[in-house]
TrEMBL record, chain A:
Membrane topology, as annotated: Multi-pass membrane protein
Protein name: Cell cycle control protein
Pfam families: CDC50
Any single GO CC term annotated in Swiss-Prot or TrEMBL for this entry: transport vesicle membrane
Positions of transmembrane segments: 44-70, 328-350
Gene Ontology biological process: lipid transport
Protein family per UniProt: Belongs to the CDC50/LEM3 family.
Chief location of this protein within or outside the cell: membrane
Compartments where found: Apical cell membrane; Cytoplasmic vesicle, Secretory vesicle membrane; Golgi apparatus; Membrane
Keyword Transmembrane helix: yes
Keywords: Cell membrane, Cytoplasmic vesicle, Disulfide bond, Glycoprotein, Golgi apparatus, Lipid transport, Membrane, Transmembrane, Transmembrane helix, Transport
Source organism (scientific name): Umbra pygmaea
Automatic annotation (TrEMBL), chain B:
Domain P-type ATPase C-terminal: 754-1001
NCBIfam families, per the entry: ATPase-Plipid (TIGR01652), ATPase_P-type (TIGR01494)
Source organism of the structure: Umbra pygmaea (Eastern mudminnow)
GO molecular function: ATP binding; ATPase-coupled intramembrane lipid transporter activity; magnesium ion binding
SUPFAM superfamilies, A to Z: Calcium ATPase, transduction domain A (SSF81653), Calcium ATPase, transmembrane domain M (SSF81665), HAD-like (SSF56784), Metal cation-transporting ATPase, ATP-binding domain N (SSF81660)
Binding site for ATP: D296, K297, T298, E410, F452, K475, R506, T586, G587, D588, R701, K707, N731, D732
The protein's name: Phospholipid-transporting ATPase
Enzymatic class: translocase
Transmembrane as UniProt keyword: yes
Binding-site positions, Mg(2+): D296, T298, D728, D732
Reactions it catalyzes: ATP + H2O + phospholipidSide 1 = ADP + phosphate + phospholipidSide 2
PANTHER family: PHOSPHOLIPID-TRANSPORTING ATPASE IG, PROBABLE PHOSPHOLIPID-TRANSPORTING ATPASE
Length: 365, 1038
């Protein structure tokens, strides 16, 4: 690269200019940069500097780890599988007799018992297994500008939505595989109080989607009030029972800004995932959100998973400052902290035993 | 850049030139010149093509040119018109036959036939003296006319530029093999994924579940075609593992890094007002890998600043007594009567004067015209008239420079003769004018010059004196003169010559011969005939020369001192200390070269010298080849088999217990060795093995081509060591081009070497810093850069590969497209570039102080497979950690305190954040030299990453189809768990590195410098000892 430019210069009959750009008869500048003498900090990692670091890391990480572990352990979590693969399961019939065209919903009821009361706010998740929401074909099968309320995209969904872009030439809104496969089981929770009455537990359906998605990323075409008109000329996704503008009665939770829909549209990272379904708010300070006792879960079974050997489950969980129950962080922190501390001790011993020999090597240059 | 080039092209191509066509002058663009056009060129113009000089405006049928832009020699060279030309160019008709274009600037053979009406056409021979080269400039001549013989790409200048081959450094070769490994990884990754994809899809319900149907087009595609496209998609997905951006960074690093050499003020030489020159930036790191140094002697180890020291006439020694005690320059030479007395006491006056006349006549020195030589010489003459021989002949400085010659020896001899009272006044149309002691001007007609060539190693002139005697004066190396003179004269002088040679002087013998008119006419005709020959002219000339230069009588010998370069010994010692083997390749004779080697401490007093020269070969009285075989075996036994296994060069500094060996070979023996009838490869390998166990090797009496042969032989020997050649003259060009790294010294022998070198430095002493400091640092920088690039791309793409196992092998990227493209371009490129330009893991002073540190990186030490595997494993470890750390965290994706869950893009962004921070901090940990630039770039690119992520996720980008990252980064940072996992993963990824650094410390390369400091007192003792040794064995003053 340099050589060629040099040649070119000479061939032109000009005086060769030194490769560094210094012109002949010119003394190089005596600047710190050009002489590679910029003032520099020259850290040297030695046992002396690293040892305290190991101890400090150990001392910080172990308490954090213990804190995380305890926090995670204090989180109450209850999980119930309602796929219905097993013949003894109440949902077995629903799962077996599933057909896309059935108009009558299949309902199954699962009783369960909470051994411990859930004191604070309870978050209700549905979980799917072996469901590849992160499959490339699936992930890209959406039209974000359509979901953002763009009229043009509403009528002309992107090609990425294929084969869920149009239904008999009529554009589908919302288009794409993700929207089409939206989770549509209805889950209701009943508390069986000790005298046998079924009390429906009120489930909050807002606050389950990201604020940024709710407010900006998802928008209805036109105004929120007259969605039927706004979605005129579009078709509902093939697998849906009702069009998008009938997802909810609340106009602030309808159409594209329906929170259940938004939650579903955020594709999961792994084939086994959970998504927030409802929130059970705490009534008052005195009673736990979910007291100890018997409950039933009433499932309107619409969502087939048997064909791909998937599983469906419902998770009831409280939440801490670090999120849901996950012992990993706590264990990891404790382990790393202990390893660091142990290494610190080992290094200290090495340093002391052979220190005299190494000391001479620690003199900085 | 390109347009600039084009403009420059146009300037050259459309340069207007005067063409004489059909009897009239027309103006043509230079690109339209055809062979055979007659051009007219004015003063200070550059010749547009190679021309045969037909007519000059000067009366003496000559013109002067300077070839400064061709070979850097700024002296004016005389070129002659074709002899006996018609004055009227316009009516001239003729044909020129010449050889095919060849790159040698100094060779040309041709023939001009002139057609005349009613006459037989005349034939003139054409030689290089008639050829004006493209690129040279006309000087001191009003205008010339010439006929174009070679144009365009056939000109000698153009041919010379083509020959330059691209040199590739060892680092690049390592890069290529590493690349191959990564290519294999890439291929196997793609293959594994494709295979697993189809295995996975064969399970029921996985290929096309109801929620994720294929398009009709997908379904219709042929299975094998689908497999192939899947394979290609995986290749595209993982292609980032091949660090394409590394090539850009490496180029940038090399280009920018080479500036530091040119900028170094330590390389600036106030004498020539120049610093170092970098002709190529591709080989910076090779400077840190040199194992063999091939150095020229004259002008490289020695100054090539010749000084006439003494002479020997007819067996008597004449010596200058310099009262000033200073050796440089002639200003101290105020004692002229001394030698004169000697002269009168010892040899006969006739012999003396003959000798001095010979010195004055037998040369090709020019007197510079503009120096006001008339005045200067007049003044000098006046002085001498006044003061006689005892008067202080103060030579004005302008006079000192007035002699110009291609070889400084000649100037020294002419100057020497001047000191004794014979002054060469210059040429006056084939007459040489010499002022003798009595201030009379003697005129000699110069009949022939038998030019110097390295094969004959002598040159002669044939002159006719004022009284009509025809004489031949010849000077040359003793070995080439002694066989051609009467033997009884030889013995008297041989003693002096040999003594002078051992003292490190360059000796020349002077002989003469009187030619009778008959002899001369025969010589004249045979010379003419040989010069006219179109084929094998060289050989024919050589034959004639050898015939003519025979039966001479020896007059005397001269001794010229060539002093050592500044700090030559220290430099050589440092290079040897750094583990390099220094070979001296010289055309000089063995004794002289040997003494230079001793003076440079390449040989010590206790070094056992193994000689393989013509002398030792002829000792046994047997056939040379047998003797050589015997000697080689003997030396091999001594130096290789009996020597302890440790490398001789390495142990030298520490233990004097080991016997050092030095090897001496001369050109004749070498050619015997290389061209031996039997078993060449066996001899060669023996020779190489011996040489590899010797601390230094001296090759004397080398022809330029042999120098290159030696370099080539070593270069291609086992282990492919990196070679470096350093030289200053045109005779070193071949070896400079042959070696891996060629270094030119901006010496006195023109600019040929500088032009062909990769790096040019003003002085030999600059080698030390160039190799030990710059080379070492460049190597460490680029090696680290290469390893780091492979590592950072591996741990970048490994999580993406692992993700395929969790997304149904669907080629789903883990990271957003913006991150994929920006990773190498913006987030991680600047810190490593800054590192690779500024890093000084050991400061320059320490590197210079302890040459032994150079050995730590010898043999491509930082790019060995072991280290490469270490880096790769580090990348794999970190990649696994990033992916599975986050995978475990995502076993419950509800990571926010409001219970909301994260999706796949959050997953990728967390991995990516950990990745960017880890690789940048890994570099920060490796940085030993934190200037403000490093701080700025490292922390700056991390800050930029954070800023960019916020920005990229902060806006609904109208041009994007999918707003994947909208608020992903911000939401991610709102989760405490994510913060905790990021910290944890960064720490755990860097932990083993920290641990290794601490544990490795006592054995690591960086500690060598410390160990080195302890026995430093010991080193200096050895150093002093060797110093005294050299002064003992060689007293220069005596």
């Amino acid at each position: 690269m340099m050589a060629s430019s040099y040649n070119a210069k000479e061939e032109d009959g000009h005086v060769a200019v030194a490769g560094g750009g210094t012109i002949k008869n010119k003394k190089p500048d005596n600047t710190a940069f050009k002489q590679q003498r910029l003032p520099a900090w020259q850290p040297i990692l030695t046992a002396g500097t690293v040892l305290p670091a190991f101890f400090v890391i150990g001392l910080i990480f172990i308490p954090i780890g213990i804190g995380l572990y305890v926090t995670s352990n204090n989180i109450k979590e209850f999980e119930i599988d309602y796929t219905g693969t097993d013949i003894s399961s109440p949902c077995f019939n629903c799962s077996q007799s599933f057909s896309w065209n059935s108009t009558r919903p299949c309902i199954c009821v699962l009783p369960f018992t909470l051994e411990q009361p859930f004191e604070s706010k309870v978050y209700m998740y549905y979980g799917l297994s072996n469901f590849y929401q992160n499959h490339r074909r699936y992930v890209k099968s959406r039209d974000d500008s359509q979901l953002n309320g763009d009229i043009n995209s509403l009528k002309n969904p992107t090609k990425e939505c294929e084969p869920y872009a149009r239904n008999e030439k009529v554009p589908i809104a919302p288009c794409g595989a993700i929207a089409n496969s939206m989770f549509n089981d209805t889950l209701d929770l009943y508390y069986i109080d000790p005298n046998g009455t079924r009390i429906q537990i009120p489930l909050t359906k807002t606050g389950i989607a990201w604020q940024s998605d709710m407010n900006v990323k998802f928008r209805n075409p036109g105004s929120n009030t007259n969605l039927t008109a706004a979605f005129q000329g579009t078709s509902k996704p093939i697998n849906w029972h009702k069009p998008v503008y009938e997802l909810d009665t609340n106009p602030q939770n309808n159409g594209f800004i329906n929170e259940d829909f938004i939650v579903w549209m955020r594709t999961a990272a792994l084939p086994t995932f959970r998504k927030l379904y409802r929130i059970i708010d705490k009534k008052n300070h005195m009673t736990p959100t979910l007291p100890r006792g018997n409950y039933t879960l009433e499932v309107t079974y619409n969502y087939p998973v048997r064909s791909f050997e998937g599983k469906k489950r419902v998770i009831l969980s409280t939440i801490s400052w670090m999120g849901g129950k996950n012992p990993f962080l706590g264990i990891a922190y404790i382990t790393v902290g202990s390893v660091c501390f142990f290494l610190g001790v080992v290094l200290l011993i090495i340093h002391h035993k052979y220190g005299s020999r190494n000391n001479s090597a620690d003199i900085p240059n | 850049m390109r347009t600039g080039c084009h403009k420059a092209d146009n300037e050259v191509n459309q340069y207007p030139v005067m063409v004489l066509e059909d009897g009239c002058r027309t103006c043509k663009e230079s690109q339209k010149i055809k062979v055979g056009d007659v051009l007219e060129v004015g003063e200070d113009e550059t010749f547009p093509c190679d021309l045969i000089l037909l007519k000059s405006s000067r009366e003496d049928e000559t013109c002067f040119v300077t070839t400064a832009s061709l070979d850097g020699e700024s002296n004016h060279k005389t070129h002659y018109t074709v002899p006996d030309m018609e004055t009227d160019i316009l009516s001239l008709g003729g044909t020129i036959e010449c050889e095919q274009p060849q790159p040698d600037l100094y060779k040309f053979v041709g023939r001009l036939s002139i057609y005349k009406e009613h006459q037989e056409h005349a034939v003139r021979s054409l030689g290089p003296e008639n050829l004006l080269l493209k690129g040279a400039t006309l000087k001191n001549t009003e205008k010339i006319c010439g006929v174009a013989v070679y144009t365009g790409m056939e000109t000698k200048m153009a041919l010379n530029y083509q020959g330059k081959s691209q040199k590739r450094s060892a680092v690049e070769k390592s890069i290529n093999s590493f690349l191959l490994v990564y290519l294999c990884i890439l291929l196997s990754k793609a293959l594994v994924c494709t295979a697993l994809k189809y295995v996975w899809q064969s399970q029921p319900g996985q290929d096309e579940p109801w929620y994720n149907e294929k398009t009709q087009k997908d379904k219709d595609t042929n299975l094998y075609l689908k497999m192939f496209t899947d394979f290609l998609s995986f290749m595209v997905l993982f292609n980032f593992i091949i660090p394409v951006s590394m090539y850009v960074t490496v180029e940038m690093q090399k280009f920018l890094g080479s500036f530091f050499i040119a900028w170094d003020k330590d390389f600036f030489d106030p004498e020539i007002q120049e610093g170092a020159l970098v002709n190529t930036s591709d080989l910076n790191e090779e400077l840190g890998q040199v194992e063999y140094v091939f150095t020229d002697k004259t002008g490289t180890l020695t100054q090539n600043n010749m000084e006439f020291i003494e002479c020997c006439i007819d067996g008597f020694q004449y010596k200058y007594r310099d009262s000033g005690g200073e050796l440089d320059g002639f200003s101290a030479m105020d004692v002229i009567d001394g030698p004169v007395n000697h002269l009168q006491q010892k040899a006969g006056l006739v012999k003396e004067e003959l000798f001095l006349r010979a010195l004055c006549l037998c040369h090709t020195v020019q007197v510079k015209e503009w120096a006001g030589q008339e005045d200067g010489l007049g003044g000098l003459a006046g002085d001498q008239v006044d003061g006689g021989y005892s008067g202080p002949a103060e030579v004005p400085p302008a006079e000192r420079q007035a002699f110009i010659a291609s070889s400084p020896d000649e100037v020294a001899l002419v100057m020497g003769a001047m000191k004794y009272g014979f002054t060469f006044l210059g040429m006056e149309s084939k007459n040489m004018r010499v002022m003798n002691r009595n201030n009379d001007i003697e005129t000699y007609e110069l009949l022939h010059v038998l030019n110097f060539d390295p094969v004959r190693r002598r040159m002669s002139v044939i002159v006719r004196s004022g009284i009509g005697e025809t004489m031949l004066f010849c000077k040359g190396a003793d070995s080439s003169i002694f066989p051609r003179v009467r033997q009884e004269e030889v013995d008297r002088i041989r003693l002096h010559v040999e003594r002078n040679a051992t003292e490190g002087y360059r000796t020349l013998c002077v002989a003469y011969k009187l030619l009778s008119p008959e002899e001369y006419s025969q010589v004249d005709s045979s010379l003419q005939e040989a010069r006219l020959a179109l084929h094998d002219r060289e050989e024919k000339l050589l034959k004639v020369y050898n015939q003519v230069e025979d039966g001479m009588s020896l007059i005397g010998a001269t001794a010229v001192e060539d002093r050592l370069q500044e700090e030559a010994a220290e430099t050589m010692e440092a290079l040897q200390g750094a583990g390099m083997k220094v070979w001296v390749l010289t055309g000089d004779k063995m004794e002289t070269a040997k003494s230079t080697c001793y003076a440079c401490r390449l040989f010590q007093r206790d070094t056992e010298l193994l000689e393989l020269t013509v002398r030792t070969l002829e000792d046994g009285g047997r056939k040379r080849e047998e003797r050589m075989h015997e000697l080689l075996l003997d030396y091999h036994k001594r130096a290789v088999k009996d020597a302890p296994p440790a490398k001789a060069g390495v142990t030298r500094m520490w233990s004097s217990a080991n016997q050092d060996y030095g090897f001496i070979i001369d050109g004749a023996s070498l050619s015997l060795l290389l061209n031996s009838s039997t078993d060449t490869s066996h001899y060669k390998s023996l020779f190489l093995q011996i040489c590899q166990n010797c601390t230094s090797v001296l090759c004397c009496r080398m022809a330029p081509l042999q120098k290159a042969q030696i370099v080539k032989m070593v270069k291609n020997s086992k282990g492919c060591p990196i070679t470096l050649s350093i030289g200053d003259g045109a005779n070193d060009v071949s070896m400079i081009l042959e070696a891996h790294v060629g270094i030119g010294i901006k010496g006195k022998e023109g600019r040929q070497a500088v032009r062909n070198s990769d790096y040019a430095i003003p002085k030999l002493k600059h080698m030390k810093k160039l190799l030990l400091a710059h080379g070492h640092l460049y190597y460490v920088r680029i090696a680290h850069l290469v390893q780091y690039f492979f590592y950072k791309n591996l741990c970048f793409i490994l999580p993406q590969f692992l993700y395929q196992f969790f997304c149904g092998y669907s080629q789903q990227p883990l990271y957003d497209a913006a991150y994929l493209t920006m990773y190498n371009i913006c987030f991680t490129s600047m810190p490593i570039l800054a590192y690779s330009l500024l890093e000084q893991h050991i400061s320059m002073e320490i590197l210079l102080e302890h040459p032994i540190l150079y050995r730590d990186i010898a043999k491509n030490g930082m790019l060995r497979w072991g280290l490469f595997i270490y880096w790769t494993l580090l990348g794999v470890y970190q990649g696994l950690l990033f992916f599975f750390g986050v995978r475990l965290l995502f076993s419950n994706p509800a990571l926010q305190d409001n219970g909301q869950v994260f999706g796949n893009w959050s997953y990728g962004t967390i991995v990516f954040t950990v990745l960017v921070f880890t690789v940048t901090l890994k570099l920060a940990m490796d940085t030993r030299h934190w200037t403000w630039i490093n701080h700025f770039v490292i922390w700056g690119s991390l800050a930029f990453y954070v800023f960019f992520s916020f920005f990229w996720g902060g806006i609904i980008w109208p041009f994007l189809r999918a707003q994947r990252l909208y608020f992903v980064f911000a939401t991610m940072l709102s989760s405490v768990a994510v913060w905790l996992v990021i910290f944890l993963l960064i720490l755990v990824s860097l932990l083993p590195e920290v641990l290794l650094l601490v544990l490795r410390k006592p054995r690591g390369p960086y500690s060598r410098q410390m160990k080195q400091q302890l026995p430093s007192s010991g080193t200096s003792t050895i150093f002093m000892l060797s110093q005294t040794a050299s002064t003992h064995s060689f007293s220069w003053s005596d």
